[in-house]
Design brief:
- The protein has helices at 61-64, 69-85, 88-102, 135-143, 265-274, 306-313; strands at residues 34-35, 46-53, 106-110, 114-118, 130-134, 150-165, 175-177, 182-185, 187-200, 204-213, 218-220, 227-229, 232-240, 243-252, 286-291, 317-318, 350-354, 360-368, 383-390.
- By secondary structure, the chain is an alpha+beta fold.
- The protein has one domain (44-376, 385-390): 4-Layer Sandwich (Deoxyribonuclease I, Chain A).
- Strands 1, 2, 3, 4, 5, 6, 9, 18 and 19 form a nine-stranded mixed sheet that branches.
- Strand 13 and strand 14 (243-252) form a beta hairpin.
- Helix 5 (265-274) packs parallel to helix 6.
- The chain is globular, with a radius of gyration of 20 Å.
- The two termini are 31 Å apart.
Length: 391
């Protein structure tokens, strides 16, 4: 999901945005899962899928709570510095190792951030183009080092926001942006969020790749600047030798809405997925993966279960285990100086589901990334991997 924006509220109030301007469950036989268990050799009719939230790299609270543009620029400096400290080029090694160990045929990625910078100025129109961190490129470079193993099927650009940044925290240095009454600007910072589907090269054929945004979006006003938090989905029809054709859908539902509102924004987004003609519908069996920011068994606050329940009501059932849990660390424990523990994974928001439980059976499920690698946690989420038998 989108370290915690509101840690006193819930651990997975994550950001799919920049600086914030950014029940019953159908009975399912779920085999015991293990963390980072060795993958089994795929058998005829089986497919392995993975959902992995990469974590955008920072706690966005300093930007979200800003009351004016100066506070927004100051908060942006705190956020961008934290992104640097959380060192995605190093984290990408651990993420790639998880994928290469599990060998999923398809991977649904969320929070595939693209951080860019430019010289100080009014960020309208958005134009920062100097790449600081492109999470997709960095991950693919690790996955395909020495051999082309994975390819991009479809990318959905989502929340895209740029703001002047007071990187050193000193308002007496740097460049003023007089139009916005900002002092101490060192650069403009831009965050573009993306959802991405990856497929294994050579064995996975995809067609009808699609992407889109939800109609109902969260509205926020950091620094008194009104912004819509764009979120959406990616999908593709998939054929693997020996496996019937199916539709693979990847999504990231809203994290910052009021979960006690009925219906919540994220639950309406879930309904958009399964509405007639929606991306998670059609004649093919659907395998849905993603950060749903919702669960009915590990509900953190009243209302958290709404989005997941909406999918259950539409006939979807889980095709991954609930344990080990996959969410979530906070931003301050991801860096090398942090002290995160596995006990902080205390609820579930990362899911694999299907609308055809009679045809799509769960063979095995496991969770990755519940221990640090090279001194860093790979993400604030763990990854969820499921091997499915499709009849």
């Amino acid at each position: 999901m989108i370290s915690s924006l509101f840690p006193a509220n819930r651990a997975f109030r994550r950001a799919g945005m920049m600086l914030g301007a950014l029940a019953a469950i159908a009975a399912v036989a779920v085999p015991a899962a293990t963390a980072d268990a060795a993958p089994k050799r795929a058998k005829k009719g089986q497919v392995t899928v993975m959902t992995r939230n990469l974590f955008l790299g920072a706690d966005l609270t300093p930007g979200l709570v800003a009351a004016n543009f100066q506070e927004l620029a100051n908060g942006a400096g705190v956020i961008l510095n934290q992104v640097d400290d959380n060192r995605f080029p190093l984290r990408a090694r651990g993420l790639a190792a998880e994928i290469l160990r599990k060998k999923p045929d398809l991977v649904g990625l969320q929070e595939v951030s693209w951080w860019r910078t430019d010289k100080c100025g009014v960020p309208i129109p958005i134009n920062a183009s100097k790449t600081r961190y492109d999470y997709l490129k960095l991950l693919l470079d690790r996955l395909n080092k020495g051999e082309k193993r994975y390819r991009v099927v479809v990318v959905q650009p989502e929340f895209d926001f740029e703001v002047p940044v007071n990187a050193d925290g000193d308002e007496t240095t740097g460049t003023p942006v007089t139009e916005l009454q900002i002092e101490g600007c060192e650069l403009n910072g831009r965050l573009t969020m993306r959802d991405v589907i990856l497929a294994k090269r050579g064995t996975v054929t995809t067609s009808n790749a699609r992407r889109g945004s939800f109609d109902r979006l969260l509205q926020v006003t950091p620094g008194s600047f009104p912004v819509s938090v764009t979120r959406g989905w990616t999908s593709a029809d998939v054929k693997i030798q020996g496996v019937p054709k199916f539709r693979f859908v990847n999504t990231h539902l809203e994290a910052f809405d009021d979960e006690t509102e009925v219906p919540s924004i994220r639950s309406d987004q879930a309904r958009e997925l399964v509405a007639p003609g929606g991306p998670a519908t059609g004649r093919l069996p659907v395998v849905l993966v993603g950060d749903l920011n919702s669960d009915v068994r590990t509900e953190v606050q009243p209302g958290d279960a709404q989005a997941f329940q909406a999918l259950l009501d539409a006939g979807f059932v889980p095709r991954s285990t609930w344990e080990p849990l996959s969410c979530c660390l906070s931003a301050d424990v991801l860096s090398e100086s942090g002290g995160g523990t596995v006990s902080q994974f205390d609820h579930k928001v990362d899911h694999v589901m299907t609308d055809e439980p009679g045809r799509v059976k769960l063979v095995s499920s496991s969770v990755t990334g519940r221990q640090p690698v090279n001194g860093f946690w790979s993400s604030d989420h763990a990854g969820v991997v499921s091997t499915l038998k499709i009849k």
